Amino acid sequence: MSITRRGFLQGTGGALIASLAISEGTSAQGLHQNLPARSVAPTNQKWVMVIDLAKCDGCGDCTKACNSMHFVPPMQEWIRVYEVLDNPQAGPYYVARPCMHCDNPPCVRGCPVGATFKRTDGLVMMDQDRCIGCRNCIAQCPYGARAFNWGEPPHTPEELAHKYSMEEGWPHRKGVVEKCDFCPEMLRAGKLTACAEKCGMGAVYVGDEYEDAVTNSKGETIQLSKVTKQGAGYRLLEELGTEPRVYYLPPVNRKYAAPGDMKS
Amino acid sequence: MMSDRENNMLRVLTHTTWRFYMWLGIFSAVALWGLYGYITQLRYGLIVTGMRDEISWGLYISNFVFFTGISYGGTLISAILRVTDADWRHPITRLSEAITVFALCVGGPMVIIDLGRPDRMLNLFIHGRIQSPILWDVIAVSTYLAGCALYLYLPMIPDLALLANREELAPWRRKLYRFLIFGWTGTPGEQHLLEKCISRMAVLMIILAVSVHTVVSWIFAMTLRPGWNSSIFGPYFVMAAVYSGTAAVVLSMYILLRVLHLEDYLKPAHFRNLGMLLLTFSLLYLYFTINEYLTSVYKVEGPERLLLHQLFFGDYAVLMWVTQAVFIAIPLVMIAVVLAVKRLQRFIPSVVALASVLIVLGAGAKRYLIVIPTLTAPYLPNPSTIIPNNPVLPFDWVHYRPTWVEWSITFGGTAAFLIMYMLFTKVFPMISIWETREDKVLVEPAVESTPRNVPQRLGSIPTMTILLIGCLLFGATIARADQKKNPGKTPEATTLSLEWKQVATPPPTDDGGAQAQPSEGESSGANKIYGQLFGWMPVESGDHAQLYPSMEVTATLLDSKGQPLAYQVAGLSLKTSFGKLDFGSRPTNGEGKAKFLIQDKRYGQYQVDSNYDGGDKFAAAHAQAMVDFGVRPAPSLPAQGVLITPYATAWIGIPFLMFFGLIWSVFLYIGIYLLFWRLPQLRKAHNSLSQ
User: Fold this and answer.
1) A166 — contact with chain B (CB < 8 Å)?
2) Of A47, A76, B190, B556, which is most buried by a Cβ count within 10 Å?
3) Inter-chain contact A113–B129, Cβ cutoff 8 Å?
């Protein structure tokens, strides 16, 4: 048997085209028909959050509630409060920043192993069993919503007694990326997230986009489409095209002392 | 037969001085120290590094970029010069190709060292997502390494064949060489075929090298970070790689020249030519640098302001300016002067070599400046004020400084590179014998010179609360007093009933109504492809694109005799998962009906409650009904294109498969078909002819 150059090139070319065809076939099928099981949420709801900056007084209770509920390792905050000063003339205001659960999430784009992925209920999930710790998602996230377990996080017996699941990401592990998970197991049970529940000012509203309503800790339910439209709701860093699922209502007619007034 | 200069060059294979062992010992000690550093890191995690959440990439990533950059040298010298037929390249091809291979051997693992979970590294292959720039890097760098190794090996075959027959060499060497040449005999047919392989590989290596350094830059350029979010990054990285890689070649040439006494091969002309190239590259790099910074300095766009301040005047200013001097300005002047001034001609090798030292060091510092300062200037800067319950990040969490572990691994990696290079010189000839044999006269005769060795707050809440309670109490008392005025009169019972129906949605009043159909119908083919690919389609307001069903919910209020009650107020609310959405209240009309028109973005069935508060005359009433707002959409992921889907489609797979598939096909063609099939055939044909 002799192999000619033409024969060899035809062979490799054929193999290339065949593998193309196979990958096209399988991927097209996968994309259009069946999402992988983990991408499909248990219920058909789409979670959304509204944070009314006019009510946020920067008390940090949301961070505290979140940290204790999720056993968040020290030096991390899954919901962080920023004091923002847009320009020297404008007064400073507080912005609470959870994970935005973007609809066009840069972290999901950049993850090399699919450890962080989008789910049908709108959440960006984090699989601590798969994460390789490359921290590309941290580099990708423009909101700084992600944190990394640089060393072995300190554990409590209560935390260790829990069984890890993707939705309840503790016990925490070394060398993986952590972030706000929107407490999906609580939302499905009709309970507010830890941050919304413990917000004394009722600034944090959560809800199901399909219900077109969000509710805060004071039991006030507002219509999502109405507040975002008439209340001039905006999303953080909209210009980056990340399509966040967290809406902010502008800090107008504030119901608390502004950060600057407090200081003076 | 070997000439004198060849024998001199090959002496290094058989003669080992104490200096070699000394340096090998030193480098091994450093490499082992680096290994200890890595073991420490494996044990305690990345907490032993200076990296933290704010600055999450550090020295390792900058080393990765640095070493892959250095690796460019070999490709440039041997491939580009080969394609352009520059004959003076012959003596320096092998030493530069060796740099390529060993720099990649150190650079590649730097990414693995940077991983938080190196034990899960195989996930890259098991669960790899082609949409991620990290995976592009893995594919590109491994392809590059395979190609470089092949490209180092191919031109070495004739030399190894020569050495395999040398009696004075140790038997294990000859055995090794004989194994590596696969029966090469050096017939004209074989030589022709080998030349062909090498020239094909040369073209391929140029394409591959450009793609690899571009892909390395894409790790940064594909992020939404001020300073990295730059379109010049691809060529900028390629340029820096060529520049530092060439400097590494010069450096290695100079060291080999001094240590192995290769004056017969490495002529001042080489240093002059490479000096010329370095001068060109430094000017090009200067141009790229000015272009990169000036475009952002001129505009001082919001988020970039902090970064630019940090770089030019802030924390990184000293390093920045020193780097610009060491990496670009000083070498530029040095080389320009030494090349231009005739009287300084004899200093060319040492000055170019010294400039190369600066360039290589500057390249390392420049990579550090590309990676770290950007991370200190995020869109949402670390809060400077103290927020209760938010930890105050300590100084070293927001300021990066590499720890001893990172330095150890960096120096250990460099030492490992040097060890590999040293050992390579002991096993393989560093100068291509057969390529230098044709003795094409070098561009310039040697100048007989002996270059010098140059070596909580409450605010007014309590007051407000008291006032509020006071008001309530006051109101309640008045109301009570009011009620007492007409006692004994029981309000008449009322009934409230609810009915709902879907009504025709009124057409939107604005111009948006013209394109009210959902987008699929009207988007053109090209638009659709863009949308599928990257979710590029401009976002349309959902209200324009889709009409939501209008629900008319009517509450009918009747008194105990079944007569409608007019001018009474009925309220409506809807029960959601978390609470009640209040739609306010409406007065009843003459038929006792209060109509609520609901046109919301809502799906599913909801319990709707209507309340009539009653009054003095009429008792309160309550009614509830289930309203169906239509089926919820099927569960799906947001339509944002293939980059976030769990699967890669052919749209993104094809370019990668085509590019790297083509490259691997050529590798296979050369490595398997030509080398293992054609070559023995040619040999057989030659042998049968000569018999």
Assistant:
1) no
2) A47
3) yes
pLDDT in tens, B434-473: 888 754 333 333 333 444 444 444 445 555 566 666 667 7
Would you say residue B539 has pLDDT above 60? Answer: no
Residues of B in contact with A20 (CB under 8 A): 650, 653-654, 657
Same-domain pairing of B630 and B648: no
Subunit contact A237:B379, Cβ cutoff 8 A: yes
Q: Which two tokens stand for residue B230?
A: 């730059």
Instruction: Choose among B608, B558, B550: nearest CA to B583.
Output: B608
User: What pLDDT, on a 0 to 100 scale, did the predictor assign at position A37?
Assistant: 86
Q: Which residues contact B56 (CB under 8 A, 6 or more apart)?
A: A135, A138, A139, A148, B375
Q: Does A167 touch chain B (CB under 8 A)?
A: no
Structural domain includes residue B470: no
CA distances for A71 relative to A65, A144, B497, angstroms: 10, 20, 50
> Tokens at residue A30, please?
């996968």
Give burial (CB, 10 Å; 0-12/13-18/19+) of B313: exposed
Top mean-pLDDT range of B225-229, B477-481, B645-649 = B225-229
- Statement to judge: residues B628 and B648 lie in one domain: no
Residues B297 and B276 both lie in one domain: yes
Q: Which of B395, B400, B532, B581 to mutate to test the interface with A (most CBs of A within 10 A)?
A: B581
Phi (first) and psi of residue A241, to 5 degrees:
70, 25
**Are B175 and B45 within one domain?**
yes
Answer CATH for A38-263 from 3.40.718.10, 3.30.565.40, 1.20.1600.10, 3.30.70.20: 3.30.70.20
Q: How close is the nearest chain A Cα to the Cα of B189, in Å?
A: 16
Give CA–CA dist B52/A76, Å, rounded: 11
Chain A residues close to B604, C-beta within 8 Å = 210-211
Helix, strand, or coil here: A162?
Answer: coil
What gap in Å lies between CA B112 and CA A214, rounded to an integer? 44
Q: How many domains does chain B have?
A: 2
pTM for this entry: 0.86
Same-domain check for residues B500 and B426: no
Tokens of B612: 């009539």
B596 and B666 belong to one structural domain? no
Q: Are B112 and A129 in contact (CB under 8 A)?
A: no
| Residue spans per domain, chain A | 5-34, 38-263
Taking the C-alpha atoms of residue B61 and residue B439, their distance in angstroms, rounded to an integer, is: 44
| Residue B681 and residue B564 share a domain | no
The CATH number for B279's domain is 1.20.1630.10
B522 touches B630 (CB < 8 A): no
Tokens describing residue B629: 């707002």
